[in-house]
Amino acid sequence: MMRSQCLLGIRAFLAFAAKLWSFLLYLLRRQARTVIQYQTVRYDILPLSRVSRERLNQVKRKILVLDLDETLIHSHHDGVLRPTVRPGTPPDFILKVVIDKHPVRFFVHKRPHVDFFLEVVSQWYELVVFTASMEIYGSAVADKLDNNRSILRRRYYRQHCTLELGSYIKDLSVVHNDLSSIVILDNSPGAYRSHPDNAIPIKSWFSDPGDTALLNLLPMLDALRFTVDIRSVLSRNLHQHRLW
């Protein structure tokens, strides 16, 4: 009798210890993601020289079109565990939306350095969100990324795309009729196949906490805003080169 009680006690203790260990690992992973996401990043924005200021005054302010999923964020919803997301990895935020009268929770992970990236490029470009996702989801994600800064006010969704052979194509002329001043950042080449000379490719992101793709793009985006026609640079087969 006493032996059975001891065994039950040991099992209960081991079960409690396992749960406690899982909880501690969850906290450690969450803290690690926070440190990586908000670690100090140096990209010095130096005052413009007189020549640079004059140059910017001679060209149009450019528009940077941003995709969401696998470009700025990655998400999965209830009942779907993506093998690319390590089990137990905490999301940066959770969205609750209603789709076809059914409540759905999306667990959203932000790409490393996305907040810093948006803060910097919003000083250089007019930012536009263009996603092939449904508006009810894309709008909620954009609100979270904007974080009351009013830098992601212009938004386009699935209904603004063209469906061709099962793929959603983004027509940049919907955003602006002057394509010389529009840059699109998207992980899916199919999305910008109508405008490859306006595109900057980027690797799809799912969960790598050490990803620096957004930071790597800052020098290029800084330089592009001085051009008369961004296609004079991006048309040089950039979409066929390595992804950032």
TrEMBL record:
Transmembrane stretches, start-end: none
The protein's name: protein-serine/threonine phosphatase
Keywords: Hydrolase, Membrane, Protein phosphatase, Transmembrane, Transmembrane helix
Domain of life according to the entry: Eukaryota
Family, per entry: Belongs to the Dullard family.
Reactions this protein catalyses: O-phospho-L-seryl-[protein] + H2O = L-seryl-[protein] + phosphate; O-phospho-L-threonyl-[protein] + H2O = L-threonyl-[protein] + phosphate
Subcellular location: Membrane
Coiled-coil residue spans: none
UniProt-listed Enzyme Commission number(s): 3.1.3.16
UniProt keyword annotation of Magnesium present: no
GO molecular function, one term: protein serine/threonine phosphatase activity
Lipid bilayer topology: Single-pass membrane protein
CDD domains on file: HAD_FCP1-like
GO cellular-component term (any): membrane
Main location: membrane
Zinc listed as a keyword: no
Gene name per UniProt: LOC113451029
Signal peptide (from-to): none
Domain FCP1 homology: 57-224
